[in-house]
Amino acid sequence: MRYLPLSPADRAGMLARVGAGHIDELFADVPADALLAEPIPGLPAHASEMAVERHMTRLAAQNLSAGTAPFFLGAGAYRHHIPASVDHLIQRGEFLTAYTPYQPEIAQGTLQVLFEFQTQVARLFGTDIANASMYDGSTACWEAIAMAARITRRGRTVISGGLHPHYVATAQGMARFTGDVLDVLPTRLVETPDCADLIAIIDNKTSAVVVQYPDVLGRVPDLAALADAAHAVGALLIVVVTEPVALGLIEAPGHLGADIVVGEGQALGVGLNFGGPYLGLFGCREKFVRQMPGRLCGETVDADGRRAFVLTLSTREQHIRREKATSNICTNAGLCALSFSIHMSLLGGEGLARLAAENHARAQATAAALAVIPGVSVLNQAYVNEFTVILPGDARAAVRAMGARGVLGGVPLGRLYPDNSGLANGLLIAASECTTDDDIAALVDALQEVL
Amino acid sequence: MNAPNTAGWRPEMTSNGAATPLPATASGDRGLALEEPLIFELAAPGGTGVDLPEASAAPVAGLSRHLRKTPPALPGLSEPEVVRHYTRLSRQNYAIDLGPFPLGSCTMKHNPRLNERVARLPGFADIHPMQPRATVPGAIEAIAQLADWLMVLTGMAGVALSPKAGAHGELCGLLAIRAAVEARGEDRPVVLVPTSAHGTNPATAAFAGFRVEAIPATDDGRVDLAALTARLADGAGGDVAGVMITNPNTCGLFERDMPAISAAVHAAGGYVYCDGANFNAIVGRVRPGDLGVDAMHINLHKTFSTPHGGGGPGSGPVVLSDRLAAYAPLPFVRRDDDGVAHLVEEEDLSSLPGAAPFGRMAAFHGQMGMFVRALAYMLSHGGDGLAQVANDAVLNANYVLRSLQDVLHAPFADAGPCMHEALFTDDELGEGVTTLDIAKGLIDEGFHPMTVYFPLVVHGAMLIEPTETESRAGLDRFISSMRSLAARAKAGDPSLKTAPHYTPRRRVDETLAARKPRLVWQG
């Protein structure tokens, strides 16, 4: 077996050294009837690298990949061009096969990357600080809600109907067991976000207001008004960003009064990956640092007085605090943070602004082309690179039919909200710098055919 | 003891490897020992290393009041500068690719590169989670195959694939238990956790809204069955939702009373959660389902070799017994009567009357990139190879245990063999020498340290997990270094106190970092 270095002679010699006549003697503590003598029935035997690659390649070939089709999906996962150097650099074994940097003397590479990543995220979000990553945007969102409850000592959170329904479900799954109360506004196919409705139900029992920016329908809420309303009653504003590229064009949430900003970082450097691994981003005000979840990398000095980096404030974390920790998170998304950071180091703020502008221009072109199809209308007044169109019938059927024609024509709201028939005709369309004029023409043709 | 490797030494180097004093360099670099500034110190904001057009169209009118006034103050560098920055940084890391990484309970084994290759096939890497399912049958089949392997290997009835890492899997398992308890109309607010457990266990139980009670360990490093049964006996366990047992445990020992533990918990109406962090010791040899386990997470980034990546991403699927399988969170994969795999989401629930998912763990379907790598690993090993993995992992650990127990205190060595990891303490090292000093000395020897000060049930723990991907010669080099360090410690060698000496940075001031946190570059 190509991954196992011990030879039969090694094994025999080592068994003798440890004083065992047979390997099973080392499993003596396993109840005899539970120790399997033979390979488990139902599993194939070992296979060559060539055979495994063939098997996996055949499975992969059955899927319609985004790069080979006109592609317009978003809804929390975005396809952008990733510079070739990103994937090359993250495959350096010193990054790929290192552990969490608990031994700082031999992990300065990873630690400096995390420090740079934290700075990039904080400047992107307009927050004082950021952590070294979470699993993904949806789990980061729940962690923000739990953190706000710790800070305010209040248990009621008000959630916009524009928050991605998977994020809502993730939070509801947790809140059901922790006892936190989540007031989730309904999602409606209207052109303005639900800021006024949120403001109307904030009161002095509210821990936090959660709003997505841009929201799940691509609309852009007025964060400053929400921040003022929340702060007036001692509540926090949590802003969720599922498309970080948008922040190249619209104002950073931290500059508009957000107290905690979380997000999904997948759009930069990580790729689609059928939903994972992704990258949770987490930024907040500096005064909340000791209530933050997740790992933090800080600057310090070594014994010779040279600048060094180290994981810090671990007294918040589970391996020290056990059941009193701020979160149970341990492993996070280190390599995805590296991907994000490399992509961001190539783009810079200037490149991100240009990328966002180009995304917006491609989305405008797509929206204009769709709007002329009879019976199709664009919902949004404002959007960056994703918007909602309303079809004359159920969008799920239209998307499936377009898929059969080789066009990946957006995310139907009916798939995200199966129980809300009022949204069934809604279709989310995302465009990016990858979207060509031919792609737009193919989308328009396919949609006209299937309607 | 192995002879030191002197093949590459320059003649003027002394026997302890120290070079003769030389003047400092003007650059601060020393040959291949390269310093690297922060990316923000290499260039000012304003540039970009990506070719993008200038903005060509005015934003839509509705966006005008939302526009960002200035771009984020971040530099954008050219590709050669960026490649050099990260390549230079990478050289300040230790990694499995450089040498043994014997972190106990972390299972730092070789990461096969075939797995990296197949995970990057566009048919897996460049597909969107919300594509029409009819356009991704191969992806759904790959997930189903992974699920099949996990269920067969563990002898369990179901699997929840969406948890993002081990601790997230723990959370998933406990939420399934909580949902099952609630479905029975009961209130069981307590979860029992042994004192030897990894910190995530009590943190997870608390995060899921349970009250944590500790179970003591016996003198031989295992769960105290008598204390557990006393806690559960005569109806006293009516408030206990379950136990969280790590097996093999964090002392590297198999919980030989596992069937009795499970029986006692089940008799009291509770569920058995098993932390599968140490599954590598028993994969292919023992099915946890045969021991009465109801839920167990599997760290694909440990047992099934997906890379740790400097701290993730991980993946923590949870296998579930038939008592819990119905509560698995959405989404999940299920095969129909014809064997065709389907991805089940919210909109499909009405056609699955038996399913009672407690909700969602996260957006989308889980760590697909890790599933593909883990499946390639399983197919490569096969059932026979995975059993060999467990055998070799256990043999390597016992080899280390028996090769060091005469020079290091091994608290449980007399009780019998260990499983996949060997536990030592700093008890016999001599005046003032601690586990930390041995760990830092090991760095100078060219190895990553073992896990230190964990588990908490012994003082000054050193937990060594070699894994099956170390050769005998590699283990001999490691053992040789450990014996040398033990000898230096006992001889009172003061240089251990200041180790490491040969690293890009010396011991760092963690107190300063925590007292005045500097978490972002201020420029």
From TrEMBL, chain A:
One of its GO terms (molecular function) is glycine dehydrogenase (decarboxylating) activity. Its EC number is 1.4.4.2. It catalyses: N(6)-[(R)-lipoyl]-L-lysyl-[glycine-cleavage complex H protein] + glycine + H(+) = N(6)-[(R)-S(8)-aminomethyldihydrolipoyl]-L-lysyl-[glycine-cleavage complex H protein] + CO2. It is an enzyme of class 1 (oxidoreductase). Residues 1-446 form the Glycine cleavage system P-protein N-terminal domain. It holds the Pfam family GDC-P. It comes from the Bacteria. Gene3D superfamilies: Aspartate Aminotransferase, domain 1, Type I PLP-dependent aspartate aminotransferase-like (Major domain). The keyword Oxidoreductase applies. Transmembrane segments: none annotated. Keywords: Oxidoreductase. The keyword Flavoprotein does not apply. InterPro entries: GcvPA (IPR023010), GDC-P_N (IPR049315), PyrdxlP-dep_Trfase (IPR015424), PyrdxlP-dep_Trfase_major (IPR015421), PyrdxlP-dep_Trfase_small (IPR015422). NCBIfam families: PRK00451.1. The glycine cleavage system catalyzes the degradation of glycine. The P protein binds the alpha-amino group of glycine through its pyridoxal phosphate cofactor; CO(2) is released and the remaining methylamine moiety is then transferred to the lipoamide cofactor of the H protein. Belongs to the GcvP family. N-terminal subunit subfamily. The glycine cleavage system is composed of four proteins: P, T, L and H. In this organism, the P 'protein' is a heterodimer of two subunits. This is Probable glycine dehydrogenase (decarboxylating) subunit 1. It comes from Novosphingobium ovatum.
TrEMBL record, chain B:
It is an enzyme of class 1 (oxidoreductase). Residues 186-309 form the Aminotransferase class V domain. Residues 391-488 form the Glycine dehydrogenase C-terminal domain. GO terms for molecular function: transaminase activity. It catalyses: N(6)-[(R)-lipoyl]-L-lysyl-[glycine-cleavage complex H protein] + glycine + H(+) = N(6)-[(R)-S(8)-aminomethyldihydrolipoyl]-L-lysyl-[glycine-cleavage complex H protein] + CO2. Its EC number is 1.4.4.2. It comes from the Bacteria. Keywords: Aminotransferase, Oxidoreductase, Pyridoxal phosphate, Transferase. Residues 1-28 are annotated as: Disordered. The glycine cleavage system catalyzes the degradation of glycine. The P protein binds the alpha-amino group of glycine through its pyridoxal phosphate cofactor; CO(2) is released and the remaining methylamine moiety is then transferred to the lipoamide cofactor of the H protein. This is glycine dehydrogenase (aminomethyl-transferring).
